[in-house]
Amino acid sequence: MSLIVMKFGGTSVGDIERIKSAASKVAAEITRGNKVAVVVSAMAGVTDQLIGYCRAISPRYDRGEHDAVVATGEQVTAGLMALALHQRGLNARSWQAWQARLITDKTHAKARIVDMQADAVRRHIENGEVAVMAGFQGVTADERITTLGRGGSDTSAVALAVALKADRCDIYTDVDGVYTTDPRIVAKAHKMGRVSYEEMLELASLGAKVLQVRSVEMAMRYRMPVQVLSTFANDIGSDLPGTLVTEGDENMESNLVTGIAYTKDQARITLLHVPDHPGVVAAIFGPLAKAGVDIDMIVQSGSGDGKSADTTLTVGKDEADRAMKILEEERAKIGYEDLVCNMNVTKISLVGAGMRSHAGVAAKMFEVLAEKGINILVIETSEINISVLISSEYTELALRALHSAYGLDAA
Ligand code: ADP
Ligand code: ASP
Ligand code: MG
């Protein structure tokens, strides 16, 4: 007998019929002789609506109260799922994060899990009950409700699986696995049977939202096997159930480019004609760091005469206004001539563990984009990824061209 955590995302619990159908998947797993804990997201669209309510009261809302509001979406589905399981004759109860003791730090809206004491949940499961935990939420040591950041139910599921020492964490979603790139944009994307934790972490952190980054980090740290599969298509127990996220092996390592991720969540800020002398870069990034603005890409290029340079950086779109305000306030100290912000940018990233040992991946990427007439705004490389920033209107064209060029198209 195995203990399996089954997580259902927003679309999978998007209406009552879908909740009933997810409950039937749970029942099937139990019929197969397994014990199950379920984690649910809010019904599709509900989290956005709740965030909208907070913003409508004030754009500068209190993040603690924001979490109190936004965490309710998952409370509703946890209860509904328990009811749907009762309808199937199963013993089940809902667990809010505070009841399941999923403890986080105090960083409201993107809290980190610091501890989970799942003893009570485990006792109930051992007594034959299905535990249905509300995803996305947590509680601080001083009993305030928190949320784990968008897509955070994936992380709740892995945390519960780790705390319960489950055999596997199954992530049920609206695609039947992890693809070489977003299958909604590139029709020729193909499903990977397996992907290493390392590559999945890179894909997720570069925008493949099929799994939240922190869920992959946690799965990797505790070696928890994660399986991504469809709520709508897969039969439990089928030979090709979805994608298994697991340890890398030699076979997987040979991939040059495993997948391509993209994100439209960034904004590009450029400081034009910054004086080119020591201390200027510190004058730009110091105040931003002090305000807790996360910077992603950075590029600085001199004008050639040694007198001035242009500095470009990217930040999350939701932080762009704040970053601009800080840089405007620092204008006299930094001494730039002009400051421009562009929200219409997309970061495209090639990911592959094989890049470590192969030269020429970047050169080919630049060639492919040049052939399509796509201008590269910023370039960034790391050990197993290469990212470029381009104008958003070319996103689909670039993804499709790169997907073909690296031999990833489905046969
Ligand atoms: P859920 O609500 O179930 O958590 P999400 O919308 O968060 O689902 O994540 C699933 C979506 O992730 C898919 O519908 C797909 O558009 C997107 N996605 C992006 N990159 C990939 C990828 N490489 N493989 C699969 N899906 C991807
Ligand atoms: N409901 C939350 C969101 O929409 C968490 C999740 O679905 O994972 O981001
Ligand atoms: Mg998700």
Question: What keyword list fits this structure?
Answer:
8-stranded mixed β-sheet, 20 strands, binds aspartic acid, about 25% strand, Alpha-Beta Plaits, 15 helices, about 35% helix, binds adenosine-5'-diphosphate, alpha/beta, about 400 residues, Carbamate kinase
In short:
With 411 residues, the chain is of the alpha/beta class.
How are the SSEs ordered, and which strands pair?
Elements: E1 3-8, H1 16-31, E2 35-40, H2 46-57, H3 63-70, H4 72-87, E3 92-95, H5 97-100, E4 102-104, E5 113-116, H6 119-126, E6 130-134, E7 137-140, E8 145-147, H7 153-163, E9 168-173, E10 194-196, H8 197-205, H9 213-222, E11 226-230, E12 243-246, H10 250-253, E13 259-263, E14 266-275, H11 280-290, E15 295-302, E16 308-316, H12 320-329, H13 331-334, E17 338-342, E18 345-351, H14 361-371, E19 378-382, E20 385-391, H15 395-405
Parallel strand pairs: 1-2, 1-9, 2-6, 3-6, 4-7, 9-11, 10-12
Antiparallel strand pairs: 4-5, 7-8, 11-12, 13-18, 14-16, 14-17, 15-16, 18-20, 19-20
Helix pairs in contact: 1-4, 7-9, 8-9, 14-15
The structure holds adenosine-5'-diphosphate, aspartic acid and magnesium ion (MG).
Magnesium ion binds next to loops.
Overview of this protein structure:
With 411 residues, the chain is of the alpha/beta class. It has two domains: 3-248, 3-Layer(aba) Sandwich (Carbamate kinase); 270-335, Alpha-Beta Plaits (2-Layer Sandwich). It is built from 15 helices and 20 strands. An eight-stranded mixed sheet has the order 3-6-2-1-9-11-12-10, with helices on both faces. A four-stranded mixed sheet has the order 5-4-7-8. Strand 1, helix 1 (16-31) and strand 2 form a beta-alpha-beta unit. It starts with a strand and ends in a 6-residue tail after the last helix. Residues 9, 151, 154, 209 line the site of magnesium ion.
